[in-house]
Amino acid sequence: MYASREDIGYDFGDDSKVGSKPIKPNPNIDGGWAWMIVLSSFLVHILIMGSQMALGILNMEWLEEFNQSRGLTAWVSSLSMGITLIVGPFIGLFISMCGCRKTAIIGGMLNALGWILSAYASNVHYLFLTFGVTAGVGSGMVYLPAVVMVGQYFQKRRALAQGLSTTGTGFGAFLMTALLKYLCTEFGWRNAMFIQGAISLNLCVCGALMRPLSPKDVVSEKYVVRSNSEDNQAKALSHSAETIQSNGVLSEELEKKEEAINEEVLDSVQHTEIGGKSRSGRNMYGLRILKTVSQLTVTVRKGFAIWYSSYFGAASLFTNRVFVAFIIWALFAYSSFVIPFIHLPEIVKQYNLSSQNNIFPLTSIIAIVHIFGKVILGIISDLPCISTWNVFLMANFTLVTCILTLPLMQTYVSLAVVCALIGFSSGYFSLMPVVTEDLVGTKHLANAYGIIICANGVSALLGPPFAGWIYDITHKYDFSFYISGLLYMVGIIFLLIQPCIQKKQPREKSTEEAQV
């Protein structure tokens, strides 16, 4: 039907020419501690993405408390969702410098601080800073490492592992909606946010579970044996692959030179420290500080070099046309999923369906079915005869159809059916890290997925306020769903066009050579 992941020319080619080599497999790859990483990522999705999907409860409380327009109030939720994803590329820099574990622990503390400070908000603009920015940045610092670590620990069952870990979004949306509704009813929204901030400190525990793989284990991934058919199919982007591969060699040589220079500096510091034992303690303390600063400088420069080359160097991720089309799709896609979660409570109230919705909320239907969608789509994608790319596209088509038909439904049963389809088809989120890794390879996954979730963040940032602004003008949500659905369709078209172009290019070249 469509091009498979190999046809499109994924993997940047930096391991396609490496020969097979007998290496003892690491028991933690696809097993062992890898399942603890899945558990950690699962809890992160509950506490971060699940909480954000339940913000419709707090959005109604803020509307009553501050008496502001729906468009302005919706900025609080959209800022938190958007910034969580927009900071992805910059979090990639943190990961390059200090690793996933430390980044996630710091992010957990920052997220909890944002929730707690928001409990003392005096106006909507205060929430922009505390909840939107502070909690949003903290969420981003935990979310990206949680996704990247699962990709590093799994090779064979990657789609299933990502599916299981990201089901935390569905569980979280269901649990956090009920929890926030209860807390707001019993204690008020301010105390509810304070309690949620205390709960968010568990993100630090999740970060502590993200034990990094040893360098040997990461290197050994290059020696995975690839079949001849995969090698032939991967030649679709051979030119860009060679460019990136050559750049990688040059960057490694530069890194070795820098490391040699820095080692000389550190050795000189150590000799000076040893020779100066008879000196005062103050001088010794200064030398230790100098040594620590030198080591920190080496780490920062090395991490920044990797981060910079991925975005702006000759090995830039933007040389992959399919990846660029993927970014364009991400700019339009996420808002279509976020808008229903933020505005469905208001839509239900507008249709006088609150009594039925209170028994079983529509957002909970999306959340529950979302869980099954992620697992089932992950299992289907791992089948050898099924292309992840095709499953991903079919799920997108189903979701955009549901978004366009949602405004036509005005009864609880019809809305419930459409919401169930939205929940199942949006299970493709579990395939996004898999598709991204297939596009760029494991080495570039952190930076590449950071770009994708950044584009999703822009979509989440602008979507809900746009829907609220349309409602303030027309007093209906219909047009916001229609416009976001059409933009979503444009992004899907970009995904369909680029694989066809990539497959055409080698054929055209071979025809020209035949004529010569």
Verbal overview:
One of its GO terms (cellular component) is membrane. It comes from Calonectris borealis (Cory's shearwater). It is a multi-pass membrane protein. InterPro entries: MFS, MFS_dom, MFS_trans_sf, Proton-linked_MCT. This is MOT14 protein. Mean pLDDT is 74; it is low at 1-23, 219-255 and 503-516. Helix 16 (388-405) packs antiparallel against helix 20 (478-515). The chain is globular. It folds into two domains: 28-213, Growth Hormone, Chain: A (Up-down Bundle), CATH 1.20.1250; 306-504, Up-down Bundle (Growth Hormone, Chain: A). With 516 residues, it is an all-alpha fold. It is built from 20 helices and no strands. The chain has helices spanning 34-53, 55-66, 70-86, 88-118, 124-153, 158-187, 189-200, 202-208, 215-220, 228-233, 238-275, 281-312, 321-350, 354-359, 362-381, 388-405, 412-425, 432-440, 445-474, 478-515. Helix content is 79%, strand content 0%.
